Amino acid sequence: MSETQNPHVTKPASAKFVYDFTEGNRDLKDLLGGKGANLAEMTNLGLPVPPGFTITTEACKVYLESGEEPAALRAEVSHHLDALEQQMGKKLGQADNPLLVSVRSGAKFSMPGMMDTVLNIGLSDASVGGLAQQAGSERFAWDSYRRLIQMFGKTVLDVDGDLFEEALEEAKKAKGVTVDVDLDAGDLKTLVEQFKGIVAKETGRDFPQDPREQMDLAVRAVFDSWNTDRAKLYRRQERIPGDLGTAVNVCSMVFGNLGPDSGTGVAFTRDPASGHQGVYGDYLQNAQGEDVVAGIRNTVPLADLERIDKASYDQLMQIMETLETHYKDLCDIEFTIERGKLWMLQTRVGKRTAGAAFRIATQLVDQGLIDEAEALQRVNGAQLAQLMFPRFDLGAKADTIGRGIAASPGAAVGKAVFDSYTAVKWSRSGEKVILIRRETNPDDLNGMIAAEGILTSRGGKTSHAAVVARGMGKTCVCGAEELEVDTKRRRMTTQDGVVVEEGDTVSIDGSTGKVYVGEVPVVPSPVVEYFEGRMHAGADDADELVKAVHRIMAYADRVRRLRVRANADNAEDAARARRFGAQGIGLCRTEHMFLGERREMVERLILADTDADRDAALEQLLPLQKADFIELFESMDGLPVTVRLLDPPLHEFLPDITELSVRVALAEARKDANENDLRLLQAVHKLHEQNPMLGLRGVRLGLVIPGLFAMQVRAIAEAAAERKEAKGDPRAEIMIPLVGTVQELEIVRDEAEQVIAEVEKAHGVSLKLTLGTMIELPRAALTAGQIAESADFFSFGTNDLTQTVWGFSRDDVEASFFTAYLEKGIFGVSPFETIDKDGVGSLVRNAAAAGRATRPDLKLGVCGEHGGDPESVHFFHEAGLDYVSCSPFRIPVARLEAGRAAAEAKGSDSR
């Protein structure tokens, strides 16, 4: 999805750009963003939400298109601000009784930490005294003021945030304290003056004292943050469209930094790492919300709140139960306690790990909150793929150097790096890295994407590192307090004095929180063992996760329409694919059978000067090919096996032209040239092509080299006949590659049918072999109606079709310029990874329709790697294909997504 903004964003003058929290609901996420819609929903539920209003995503779109807010926006904001002031009994910026507000981003899809927030807006030199009197705490007022200048300076005025941090650290150092809560009112007052000086020096202007100017500039900053580099990068990573824009939420401030009877926290209705029910979250006394998310001070577990403030704890537990029942899902909640009064600041359906997603989905079914169809929609193929990754061998010898919070599971091994720049640089050089930080912030996103895993010494399950890592499926361990991280010296030190330097190998276990020095061996995932039949999901001691996966997969298999086959070239791969649930083979590449010891036989075939020599070479290959197919038909007995006849250029089976030329030249110089080498070089020169992928390959080989395809068809037919004589059930399908015109297919089909008839007569059996073709050229797709006259089936070869539609050589372009295309937003994702629906997909749709118009019973499948891509599987379901085929390890993912596509389509039809 391109990041380019929609050039046609227009709104009538009467459009409504601002909604009070009482006016919205959770179904208005497109307009109010996720945060605004959910604040409105909680308000409707009667929960304690501070009053406020939301500026819509439509206002943001107008601003991003024109560079100016909509003309009506200022008046609408003023109207809602007046209403808010009346409701609160305070005025924004009033000296003796100031109203303070927060300005927070809120896009339709959660983008944690990627866009901007400013708290305490409305404070100024004139009103800070009034806030102190209002709260009865001078320290609180000056702490709030320094926070405003720091956040506003960095976010709105683009001042380097390190300048504020350094001044804060110096103030603590001068006071002889280590945490900011130990600074008194006088210290903070001095710090405010320093912060204002930093703003003036860095921007050439004073910190704005007009509270409305503060608010308006903050709103603009939130709009602008939609197009920051980190926000664009996150959207590309998560495949979020770039033209949605963000809403802005203006909310009356409630304060968690009023003393020990106040605080702020983040809670989950279930553990986002495991899915288990219980009390999960973090709480920080005498703090504002950003302190928790940033991980600058270590929190206490949410369960400790029961001891600290039991009344607020009990009320929070009730609210969490209300929200989970209402949303019927894991909820992620932000709250503040202001002097014993609980306030809800946000809720959203929480990000969770892959394992938690499967567990929670089945738990909610058991609780009667959702049905199986909805449970299937709550998980996806990418999550299932994560669960199939290996995990650490707990029985292996490993040197544990620390332990933190298990924030996002997985087994990650790599070289230690201490900044995002190095993580990206080393990763691009092929190194696997672990990003180690005290705590991460949104500027670390590049490094987090590049790393195998993330390790922090601060923060908890709700810190920036944990939330973003879970969303990306990255292994993460947070809050490993016993590890001292020194980013300047690029090292990490344990309590026992062990030093990990940059470049040293470390291993982190996101399931246990353990950190190891060196590389820890891995073992197969229990989910893979389940798919391979080595773990029975119904056993009493079966892994809880395996049971959840089994239940959801069973439902997906019941409802899916698309069948799932495997790309497999030998009996071993075929057997594995069948264990993984394959319903046949959709692509057997026979060229893989010509490698190894058989390469010399192919050379003799190519070098044959006479018909007799060529026939002899083919006769030598025939029994070997037949043996291959017998093994394959045994492994897939009773299921279809699509065999693609030889496809690649023949010169791929010959020596490299440069190496052979050098060898011959050296031999000639020594006057001992080998006659065979000379003939081989002549053949290589003759077959050499400037662009072999568009040259003599596929069906063209079968037409140019007499007997080649006939030999392969005979091997298939004889193998099928022998299997049938052995009481087996072979179901072979013969596929002719790279057809561009029906005449090519007709010629090969006539020859193949003649060979099959001969084999049937010789063995006295009826084989019922089908013949079809790959649709991998644009011309084949455009003339599919004609080609269907001679084809029993089509299999879309979307790898080659993508290359020929785009004019891309996959082996070259992915390494040369795809990175730039992704960064510039030309691609949201590589067209070789997920099918290009508008271009390649259009040809697939049209070819499928034209083929079935000619032959209604035409079987349609896909055998490119797109067959195992989750998003592409949904497209193939919509396009009406009968099956997808993919590599064996992607079969479970394809099965799951085929079920999700069917359930989604059924849900759409019912609506």
UniProtKB/TrEMBL annotation:
Stretches assigned to the PEP-utilising enzyme mobile domain: 431-513
PANTHER family, per the entry: PHOSPHOENOLPYRUVATE DIKINASE-RELATED (PTHR22931), PYRUVATE, PHOSPHATE DIKINASE 1, CHLOROPLASTIC (PTHR22931:SF9)
Domain Pyruvate phosphate dikinase AMP/ATP-binding positions: 70-298, 306-355
EC top class, as a word: transferase
Similarity-based family: Belongs to the PEP-utilizing enzyme family.
Domain PEP-utilising enzyme C-terminal: start-end pairs: 547-898
Required cofactor names: Mg(2+)
Catalytic activity, reaction form: pyruvate + phosphate + ATP = phosphoenolpyruvate + AMP + diphosphate + H(+)
Protein name: Pyruvate, phosphate dikinase
Single GO MF descriptor: pyruvate, phosphate dikinase activity
Protein's UniProt keywords contain Transcription regulation: no
Record keywords: ATP-binding, Kinase, Magnesium, Metal-binding, Nucleotide-binding, Pyruvate, Transferase
Pfam family, one: PEP-utilizers
Keyword Nucleotide-binding: yes
Enzyme nomenclature, EC number: 2.7.9.1
Organism listed in the record: Streptomyces catenulae
